[in-house]
Amino acid sequence: MLDLGPIAFACDGHWAFLFANNGIFYSGLPASLRTKIPELWKAKRSFRGLALRPQGGWLLLLDKNECLHDGLPTPLAARLDEAQKASRTIRSVAFAPDGGWAILFDQGFFESGLPKNLRDQLADHAKNRVPIRCLAFTSQADWFLIDDRNGISANNTNHAAYKQLAELSARGEAIHWLAFSP
Predict the structure, then answer these.
(1) Measured between alpha carbons, how far is 95 from 25 in angstroms, rounded to an integer?
(2) pLDDT of 32-59, one tens digit each?
(3) How many CA atoms lie within 13 A of 22 on its CB side?
(4) Is the dihedral of CA 106, 108, 112, 113 positive or negative?
């Protein structure tokens, strides 16, 4: 039986499904990531998250609050390294199709190149101390935020996914992750 772990889709068509018991399905992953994953399995490490940058590069969130990455822009890599040195728990990292990015923490975030309406939502959540579980982008740059109170925010409330998520949330269903295929 396969124990599904993190999944990731990049807007450029690359994707990966990681399994806790040494399995991986993927398309278009960089060689540096394909070789790193088996090394981590051999070291008995577990995966908390995976993010693929449409412009190239990747990030793995591991147990022990560790983050590994390759091919990311220097400002993002510096923020990730700074967060690790400060022992900040990284909840997730999201990449927008146009190159913007966000690092989400239990409290707060770092971002670059995101639309103002999304930055405002992130700032409001941080100010009100409501952690964000997940931030996901469609290949058309629509964005969706899910917070720890099961609140859902989006820039396109007419999107079919928003309507489905709002319905699930209204029923009290816990929504933990969201990913869009290209």
Answers:
(1) 21
(2) 999 998 899 889 888 888 999 988 899 9
(3) 6
(4) positive
Q: What is the C-alpha separation between 175 and 18, in angstroms, rounded?
A: 20
For residue 137, which amino acid is it?
A: F
Give yes or no for residue 74 having a pLDDT over 80: yes
- DSSP letter for each residue of the chain: ---EEEEEE-TTS-EEEEETTTEEEEES--HHHHHHHHHHHHTT--EEEEEE-TTS-EEEEESTT-EEEES--HHHHHHHHHHHHTTPPEEEEEE-TTS-EEEEESS-EEEES--HHHHHHHHHHHHTT--EEEEEE-TT--EEEEETT--EEES-TTSHHHHHHHHHHHTT----------
β-bridge partners, 4: 19
What does pTM read for this prediction?
A: 0.89
Q: What is the pLDDT of residue 1?
A: 58
Strand partners, 101: 95, 112
Asked whether the beta carbons of 19 and 40 are under 8 A apart, the reply is: no
Alpha-carbon gap, residue 26 to 139, rounded angstroms: 18
Least-confidence region, from 16-30, 42-56, 108-122, 145-159: 16-30
Cα separation of 32 and 10, whole Å?
A: 16
Query: Does the pLDDT value for residue 77 go beyond 90?
Result: yes
